[in-house]
Structure formats: structure tokens, C-alpha cells
Design brief:
By secondary structure, this protein is α/β, with parallel strands linked by helices. It has four domains: 125 residues, Rossmann fold (3-Layer(aba) Sandwich), CATH 3.40.50; 109 residues, Rossmann fold; 140 residues, Nitrogenase molybdenum iron protein domain (Rossmann fold, 3-Layer(aba) Sandwich), CATH 3.40.50; 50 residues, Proto-chlorophyllide reductase 57 kD subunit B (Helicase, Ruva Protein, domain 3). It is built from 18 helices and 14 strands. A five-stranded parallel β-sheet has the order 10-9-8-11-12, with helices on both faces. A four-stranded parallel β-sheet has the order 2-1-3-4, with helices on both faces. Protochlorophyllide reductase is composed of three subunits; BchL, BchN and BchB. Forms a heterotetramer of two BchB and two BchN subunits.
């Protein structure tokens, strides 16, 4: 473990929380110190859920460590069962509590509770959140599922959606509708909105749809081995992937399948006149493995972008992402260090980033537009509106997600190009303010004051000053390459021993790098 400002994944007990919070009739008893009790913040504030997560903490403090903390865990277990009356409980320890080795599983087994107790062994110092969710769901399925007669009609289970997942709620709704159109019933969706009784019914389905491998693959593989249920390998995110998914289901069920594509707009819109200026845009893609793989295909095959780099933070998906990178002829970045990702983006200088909330912040710093396509995400990425990623409607949503940052960036660039116009110079203020200037200190000519700063700079010093005319000319360069032009010019000036960057320096640097 290491100290960091941002993290892509939490510890594995957060993954277990995601499963417990997604389900009904299940409770999580977590042996944890006072500082680890932040589940309410995650689920009620970020995801804006309408109920508190079903998690009970032992909440031991420093003074408790001098005595036996086992009784605290037993008390918490009994109180949770008495108060919430769950159908089953899962028990485990947080990363901090793991150090005192109280063995929550063994303690719970000695209590003689009348409901199933599912112990979790989650190695907090070697694995992370997605592993915790996958392992927790697997243990629940392995403990609670029971042999069943197959349903009369062809049916499937949808595996993988959890609480705090990226658009999981809407994905399930869209996928259920798509399967219904194909003549397939959904037997159980799990863990999202499933109860322990629903988990018992999983083997009644004819096959499983593995929607998110990060959080459902271990359970899908166990169900295939134990109950002879095949599972799908294609995640239906994007037009091509959705069509491949339908073909895969046809092969599993040995039935012809054809879906209604009347709502699908992405293929036409991405080829329309309004979108042709996006062709060839260089994009960098980073996030969880499932969404990165899906969006790499969408970017290249359905939007006409050029993928210049891909990567994922969850190491469980490293192998398929590396294979995909070889197919695309680019480097794969497998890391959970956002500073490494930032360095890769800065080096590649893409015109757009497809990433997580962290890449959105990186894009702001570098002046590169970013579309969020994967968790971890901000509260704004849990919209109240219907906004799936899977299926044909999901493809429409993704088109908007990818195109809007570029369109807004183009608008920003056009405003910059016309900076000297009477309507658009800095002193004019926002156009919707009717011409008032909220910026009285701005240079009305559209220039900048950067040339008046740091006048004590001398040749050979580490301080580089952009003169007003050079700064003004720099702003005419399109936003998506402006950062690279600035860095190249500053490198050129530093190599020449210059303290100031003039208009001539900017042109000389441009000619130098053009050669």
C-alpha cells in the first residue's frame, strides 16, 4: 500500500460493500476501526441512493486494542441480526482490522446464528476493490445457490451489476429490454436488487450474461462448472459489440435472433457531415478493463478516431488489455498510479481523453477534453435521467458522451480565433451577459499581461516569460495542440538560453520542430 491523493480502487472490503449494498435481505458485518466507517458517504452522497447501506461496523477504537476485541465483533453480529432480520449475512474485516487477526469468520460460526453466515477472506494488502466485489459475489453464489429445474421459457441471469457501478442500473434496464425483444426472459439479476432467495434460483436459467467481468466472472465460471450454465463473453457496449452479443446468444440458444435497431442513431450520426471533422482525432483511453476494451473498439471502428494509447488500473484485466494494445499497435498502460497515467497523456499529447474522473482532472490541467467512460466517477456521472452504456440506446448515449467535449472544445477554439472581434474579446464578457464586462482588469485588445510579469528574468535562468504578442499568437493555435506547442516552444527557448519568448521565438520553434 502507498499514500496517494487519488486512488482508482478502494480496498477489497469496499468491493464487498458494493455487493451487499446492491442486494436486498443481505447484511454485511464489518470488523473495522472508527476511521473505516465511510460507507454511508460512498453510497448516499456519491451514488445518491435512497437508503443507507446494510453495513454494521464493530467500530473499535484505540483504547479497545488493549483488551479482547472479539466480543465487540460478536456483539455487532448479534445486534445486526436482531435489528435488521436479514436472510443472510456476510462477515469480514477491513484492511486495518485485518492486522489484529480476530478471525471474524470463525467468531461468527461459533455464535450459532439461524441464518447463513458467509465468511469473506479478502487480502487487503495485495488485492483491491474489484477483486473484493468479485470474490464476495462468488462466495454468496457458491453458498446460497441450489439445484433447480430449468425455466419453461429460455431464460438467462444477468451477472455483475453492483452498487456504485458505472451506469449499472440503466444498463440492466436496457439489457433486459433487449433480451425481451429477442424472446429471452431474465430469471435473476444479481447482485443488483437480488435477495438471497433470488441467488438460490440462479441455476434455473439456461445461461448467464456476464455483463461486467470485473465483478461477476468468478461466479459465472462457478455456475458454468457446477450447474452447466454457459456464459456470454461479449459485453454489449457499442454497436458492433451489441450485434456480436446477439449473435453469441443465438449460438448459445440455437435460435435465430434479430433485434430492433430502429432507435440506433450512432452509425448515421458518426458518418454525417456534422461529424466528419472528428475523423482521425487522436484519443487516449484509460479506465477499468471492460469499458476500455469496449470504447477502444467504438473509438476506432464506430467514431473514426485514432487510438494512441490504452490502459487499465485493475490488474486482473491486464492480459486482455495488453493483447488489445498489440492488436491496435499501441502501448498498454497497466497501472494504478494516476501520475504515471498523467505522464503518458502528456507524452502522447492526444486530442481527447476517454477515462475516469481522475483523467478528467488531468485533462483540465493539460487543456485536453475528456469524456468519462469508466468508474471511479463523480456524482455527476450518476444522472437522474436514463443513460445506459449497453445496447443500441447505450450506443446513442456514448456518441453524445464522446462528441460533446470535442464540439465544446471546437466552440472554445472558434471564440479564441475571433478574440479581437468586438463581441468576443476579453473585455466584452460572456455573450449571454449582453455585453457587460465582468473583467474590468482585462486587456481590451485581447492581449495578456503575462509579458509584464517576471521582468527580472535573465538569459540562462529557469524563468521563461511569454511576451504579450507571443501569448496572443499562441491562443490562436487549436486548443487540442496548444499545450504541446507551448511545451515545445519553452523547450526550444530553454535550449537556446532565452529568458523571454517573443513572437519570433514562437515561429522559430515551430519551424524547428517542423523539420
Amino acid at each position: 500500500m502507498k499514500l496517494t491523493v487519488w486512488t482508482y480502487e478502494g480496498p477489497p472490503h469496499v468491493g464487498a460493500m458494493r455487493v451487499a449494498t446492491a442486494m436486498k435481505g443481505l447484511h454485511y458485518v464489518l470488523h473495522a476501526p472508527q476511521g473505516d466507517t465511510y460507507a454511508d458517504l460512498l453510497f448516499t452522497m456519491i451514488e445518491r441512493r435512497d437508503h443507507r447501506p446494510p453495513v454494521t461496523y464493530t467500530t473499535f477504537q484505540a483504547r479497545d486494542l488493549g483488551a479482547d476485541t472479539a466480543y465487540l465483533f460478536k456483539d455487532a453480529c448479534q445486534q445486526a441480526v436482531d435489528r435488521f432480520n436479514p436472510e443472510a449475512i456476510i462477515v469480514g474485516a477491513s484492511c486495518t482490522a485485518e492486522l489484529i487477526q480476530d478471525d471474524p469468520a470463525g467468531l461468527a460460526e461459533t455464535m450459532g446464528l439461524s441464518i447463513p453466515v458467509i465468511p469473506l477472506e479478502l487480502p487487503s494488502y495485495s488485492r483491491k476493490e474489484n477483486f473484493g466485489a468479485d470474490e464476495t459475489f462468488y462466495q454468496i453464489v457458491r453458498t446460497l445457490s441450489a439445484p433447480q429445474e430449468r425455466t419453461a421459457r429460455v431464460s438467462c441471469n444477468i451477472l455483475g451489476p453492483t452498487a456504485l457501478g458505472f451506469r449499472n442500473r440503466d444498463d440492466v434496464e436496457e439489457l433486459t429490454a433487449l433480451l425481451f425483444d429477442l424472446g429471452i426472459d431474465v430469471n435473476v439479476v444479481a447482485p443488483l436488487n437480488a435477495s438471497p432467495a433470488d441467488i438460490a434460483r440462479l441455476p434455473a436459467a439456461h445461461f448467464n450474461v456476464l455483463l461486467y467481468p470485473e465483478t461477476g466472472e468468478a461466479a459465472a465460471r462457478w455456475l458454468e462448472k457446477t450447474h452447466a450454465q454457459p456464459f456470454t463473453k461479449v459485453v454489449p457496449i457499442g454497436v458492433g459489440a451489441t450485434r456480436d452479443f446477439i449473435a453469441e446468444i443465438a449460438q448459445i440458444t440455437v435460435k435465430p435472433m434479430k433485434a430492433d435497431e430502429s432507435r440506433l442513431r450512432l452509425p448515421w450520426w458518426s458518418k454525417s457531415v456534422d461529424s466528419t471533422y472528428l475523423t482521425g482525432k487522436r484519443v487516449f483511453i484509460f479506465g477499468d478493463g471492460t469499458h476500455v476494451a469496449a470504447h477502444a473498439r467504438i473509438a476506432r471502428d464506430e467514431m473514426g478516431f485514432e487510438v494512441v494509447g490504452i490502459g487499465c488500473y485493475n490488474r486482473e484485466m491486464a492480459r486482455p488489455i495488453r493483447a488489445l494494445a498489440r492488436e491496435f499497435g499501441v502501448e498498454a498502460y497497466i497501472t494504478d498510479d494516476y501520475l504515471e497515467v498523467e505522464q503518458a497523456i502528456e507524452t502522447l499529447s492526444p486530442e481527447m481523453i476517454l477515462g475516469t474522473q481522475m483523467e478528467r482532472h488531468i485533462g483540465k490541467r493539460l487543456g485536453i477534453p475528456c469524456a468519462v467512460i469508466s468508474a471511479p466517477v463523480h456524482v455527476q456521472d450518476y444522472p437522474a435521467r436514463y443513460s445506459p452504456q449497453v445496447g443500441f440506446e447505450g450506443a446513442n448515449v456514448i456518441f453524445d458522451t464522446l462528441i460533446h467535449p470535442l464540439v465544446m472544445g471546437l466552440e472554445e477554439h472558434l471564440l479564441t480565433m475571433f478574440r479581437d472581434d468586438f463581441e468576443f474579446h476579453d473585455a466584452a464578457g460572456p455573450s449571454h451577459h449582453g455585453g457587460h464586462s465582468p473583467l474590468p482588469t482585462a486587456d481590451a485588445s485581447g492581449g495578456s499581461f503575462s509579458g509584464q510579469m517576471k521582468e527580472d528574468a535573465t538569459p540562462g535562468s529557469d524563468v521563461l516569460v511569454w511576451l504579450a504578442d507571443a501569448e496572443k499568437e499562441l491562443k490562436k493555435i487549436p486548443f487540442f495542440v496548444r499545450g504541446k506547442a507551448r511545451r515545445n516552444t519553452e523547450t526550444f527557448a530553454a535550449e537556446k538560453g532565452l529568458a523571454e519568448i517573443s513572437l519570433d521565438t514562437l515561429y522559430e520553434a515551430k519551424a524547428h520542430y517542423a523539420r
